[in-house]
């Protein structure tokens, strides 16, 4: 069975980062059968810090790293701190061995207070995983506080991102989007007063 690792760096409980990570995992699981392993980094903060100081992971952190590295795909979600990913998120990534994410599909997500921080996906997360030579999916999902109330746009982004990852894991070509302007009146017809040109 396809395995999916879901890493959330949310610090609160409840956490909007955890919620976004769960919704993204559900969007994938609704399309293909996956064995999902969820990691809440807040529960591993001391283990990560100990590893950075000693250079050796404890047993619990080692199991989590093996789950993430051994998974067929990764969903990674972080809260936005100072216009970038959180320190805990980056510290966990630093624990991973160089080359351990090469070729792994990664769906990125982030949460924050306002829409102004949405570029964290493209100026922080995407370059980080590109440096690690992972395959970063085209659609990343950012959720501001206001997105949770409206939900319509957020649900659409989550579904699109989940479909992209599911299609990649299933070996399917992504579905072509419907042409948004399929019923456009030709320019020549508009010049002819709306009547079809002879």
UniProtKB/TrEMBL annotation:
Gene Ontology molecular function, alphabetical: oxidoreductase activity
SUPFAM superfamilies: Flavoproteins
InterPro entries (alphabetical): CE1759_FMN_reduct, Flavoprotein-like_sf, FMN_Rdtase-like_dom, NAD(P)H-dep_FMN_reductase
Domain NADPH-dependent FMN reductase-like residue range list: 4-148
Record keywords, A-Z: Flavoprotein, FMN, Oxidoreductase
NCBIfam families listed in its UniProt record: LLM_duo_CE1759 (TIGR04037)
Protein name, per record: FMN reductase
């Amino acid at each position: 069975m396809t395995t999916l690792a879901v890493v959330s760096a949310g610090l609160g409980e409840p956490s909007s980062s955890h919620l976004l990570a769960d919704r993204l995992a559900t969007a994938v699981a609704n399309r293909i059968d996956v064995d999902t392993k969820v990691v809440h980094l807040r529960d591993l903060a001391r283990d990560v810090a100990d590893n950075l100081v000693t250079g050796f992971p404890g047993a619990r952190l080692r199991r989590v790293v093996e789950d993430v590295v051994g998974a067929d795909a990764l969903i990674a979600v972080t809260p936005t701190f100072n216009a970038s990913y959180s320190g805990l998120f980056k510290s966990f990534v630093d624990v991973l061995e160089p080359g351990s994410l090469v070729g792994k599909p990664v769906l990125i997500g982030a949460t924050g207070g306002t829409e102004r921080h949405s570029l964290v996906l493209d100026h922080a997360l995407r370059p980080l995983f590109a440096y690690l030579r992972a395959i970063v999916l085209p659609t990343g999902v950012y959720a501001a506080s206001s997105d949770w109330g409206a939900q319509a746009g957020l649900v659409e982004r989550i579904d699109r991102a989940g479909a992209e990852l599911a299609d990649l894991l299933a070996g399917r070509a992504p579905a072509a989007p419907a042409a948004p302007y399929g019923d456009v009146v030709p320019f020549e017809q508009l010049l002819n007063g709306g009547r079809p040109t002879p």
